[in-house]
Batch of 4 targets.
Target 1
Amino acid sequence: MFFVVLTQRHSDLAELLTESAATDSFKSDVIRFLETGTADRVDVRGYAPRVKVTRLLKHVLASLPHLDIEQILVRAQSGCSDFAGTVELATPTERHAFEFVWCCRWRAEEEGWVDYFGFPDQMRAAREFDWQCFKVWKSLS
């Protein structure tokens, strides 16, 4: 069983890692990426803030807990309210690819949340939904 010590802020990641069939080396690299922003088995191409890649990692682990993931490749670009691109997952026997769009503005609009100025409350959506703001998650394989 895979045990990790994470801050309260990332307790959901600890649970996702524990429940995942991903390899221990990949799980270790997920933690390493969270701590340092780089890891051998988490390959990020394009501009991607660590927090947005972490949200993607959480979504991958939650959506595909049965996969024995060894490595991921993220090709994405980050905007103010969004993070969009593709992610490729490698297991010992197969590859899976997904198109994704994480968008806190979309989530705020879905929830009907507005800020003081009447705009979609993106910060609240990002804070409260974290990795659960995926507008698009589409298999490409």
Target 2
Amino acid sequence: MVERRLLKNFDIGIVLVMVAIILYGLATVYSASRGGAAGAGSVHRQLVWVVAGAIAFALAVSLDHRTYPRLAGWVYGVNLALLAAVLVFGHAHKGAQRWIGLRSIGLTIQPSEFAKVAIIVTLAAFLVKYRSRLAEPKIFALSFAHVAVPMLLVFLQPDLGTAMVLTAIWFGMTFVAGARPKHLAAFVLGLVIVGFVAWHFGVLEDYQKARLTSFINPSVDPEKAGYHVLQARIAIGSGQATGKGYLHGTQGQLGFIPERHTDFIFTMLAEELGFVGAGILLLLYFLLLWKAMIIMSETEDDIGRLVAGGIVCMFLFHIAVNIGMTLGIMPVTGVPLPLFSYGGSSLMANMLALGLLVGIGTRRHKISF
């Protein structure tokens, strides 16, 4: 466990903010499940994952981040094996094959959620190993190849949202590692070209195209592709300053909001508790990211700083895209709201990531004699 001399750097603030977001999310999940027995059941299942996440958090805190490079090969291999197993043995739901486990007893996990944390750790180890050569086009390209393999496996599930998260993590971490701006600019240009090809040559499914464009003008297809965005806008707008009251949201409680306890849970919060309730959640996320940025900036070794940077990128991307898609300013990509949306794998993976972050924070200063 954590040595006593490290406890003075233990960031209890991150723990308190994390717990506050989780509790806030549980209350919203209860409402999104329409309260009563159904709501209690959803909260109970989520609490089981909270306990599992707390264990993962504690284990991650106790692990010295300077050992990550020695573990990176194993972590990368297990990550690929799990993602490949999903494509062969995974359970399908709503056209996507993303889960693996014993569905008969309700024990399933979504490996793509844990893949984000695995990529942060293994990419950090890669960038530290080759940092002096990151300016070379070959090493820069290899750093993306490191992420591209699991990204392809995720995309085949299909899970476009998580594939986008992995891309954002890679971009942010290579930037923190000191990649040349011209290489990053060339990557963005290449991404645009790949996107154009994927759009026009059948790589993306029709529903994925519709989701990506529906936020621009959802009224073009209000009953299908634009339905999510239109209903979310109505619900959020009707919440006004203080909301309609807990458990009294009309759009959510009457079932007009799809995926209201997962991807669109922010809509439930904004309708029932209004701008004030949504603002409280945003403030909690701001505090979490602010504290994470402090740990990243104060960490004196490269591996810790890069892992912290990757975690910041992951959380920031999730928050911006999820809330943005409910407001109609981002494409609908199925990215959950960290620590808040219903979903065991996502919750546990996020708690694991924060455990790594707090562990890095406790050891942020190099030992000197």
Target 3
Amino acid sequence: MIQKLAFEDAENQLREFKEHGKKIIGVFPHSLIPDELIYAANAIPIKLVFGGDDHPTTKGTEYMTQATCPFARGCIGYFDQNDPIYALVDAFIGGNFCNGDLIASEMITKFFNIPFLKVTFPTTIKPFAMKFLKQEYLILKQKLEKFTGTQITQDNLSSTIEKYNKLRLIFQNLNQQMKNTNLPLLGEDLQNLIHRFYLLGPDDTLQFIKNLEIKQNANSRNRIPILLSGSGIAYGDDLIHMIEEFDTRVVINDTWSGIHFYLEQIATPSIEDPMETLVQHYLLGNESSRMVPNVRRIPRVMKLMKEFNIKGVINHILKFCDPYIADRNRFKEHLLEADIPMLELERDYSTSLEQLKTRLGAFFEMIS
């Protein structure tokens, strides 16, 4: 129902942004970079979300070891192939969110001559970590102002936070509507909408949603509600489509490509210090398994399963995705103790689609 953003449309829109003097800032699609800060600098933050294709992943192996996640290797591969959209990136932001982010950032800077605005992330939420990240955000703010030639004022940043919160609220409401089995909205629809936002920013997405009509249909199939957790789903990866071919509905996408953006809104910005508000949101509310101790994932999943009447969990792990590989046993054991059906899918982009379909089919038959 919500169509996937066409590659050509995304490219044309980004070129139009550049023609109007806006910088295109690439961002590794993880959840500690405040896009609001980039947007407030009159730039367009685009997530480097392309993936699912084994060819650029293989090209990335020429720069990184195979023991790095296929998504990170694919990011390098798309730059190596001079992908038309990635070629529009004026600078990119990355850091030490995970091993793949860290190494890919270094390789892209070294081999493709793209300015790198580095941010170092803490792994705890202790007070010293909060102070550290705030300083990193202030440094990033200065770098963005210098690079774009635009001063990030408190008023501009506060209004940008409000705009992003408006979008978060819309996504929350759409996700809540998926409880209604007469609504034809699927997980693939919501993923297509998020990918659009990640590539074109808030203004385009808000306008697109304004023209969106979602109507109830009494003949909609009563699908099995599923929660997808773990590694995110890239633009070009058809995993959610494949899952929903089995009369299921990915009601909750508990990844960086899903609810990690919109699960919680940013608190009303402090008039005196909106930067502190960003730090509070992005560090204290971080949903990734990279944090130490990792105390948010299991309670979050259990709460969402109850709220949305979830019947089964798919734990999606891209090979060498360190945070979720490290968490796999604990996550699995907890769900087993709670008698929650779970399928673990560890894969890379070369994994046979027929193999995946066979495993998915067996799992859904078991829980139906």
Target 4
Amino acid sequence: MELTFIDNYNYNALPYFLFFCFYIRIFYFFMYTYLKNTNNKFYLLDNHKKQYVVKNIVKSYNLGALSLYSIPFIVYPAFMYQKWDSNLMHICGLFYSSNDFVALLYVKKLSPTTINHHKITTIFSLLALFIDYTTSSLGRMLFVYTLASSYAFLVNYYLGTRFLYNKEDKSIINMKKNARNIYALSLLCNWNWHIFWSVSNYNLLELQHLIYFCTMYPVIKDDIVLLTWLCN
């Protein structure tokens, strides 16, 4: 299967992106207000740390919701019946990337690798509105990476909540271990699937696949940096 495009750019999905961005920014406000009034450690954090905490907790909830939604409506139909709903996958991809896009605008002092990661996911989700997932192997590769990242939502929850409790707290220590294990398993399955598909379908590999792998380098680099940090 080659990279194939729908007849027209899916402009109908773009309002969803705007709606998601608005929803996330409102979610930030309520989460910020809640934490400020209920957690003393949050109240004492620098402003950019507060933004970082809010961003990660909100993203964890959103990715958790996306993970649950994807199982009956995307994963099951795809694996059982080879049914891929391009419009639904476009919308889900925009929901995923809207978290990163709003974070770029909201959070100060993000690391360079995280900034590059967020930029790539946002650009890819908007370009993906050209892709017909019913026939595009490259589009499915991109969506597999998106879903695998979503299933590791506990990582984002840990990244946010670690500033709200003592490092010696047993629940925080256990959460970090669980987040590390889930993230490692997610990346292992994700990368192995990409490698397996590429080896099994080497005759279908074209320039577009090479461009995809090269463009994904900043995302993969950020994944490796984060996993290494979780292992320490």
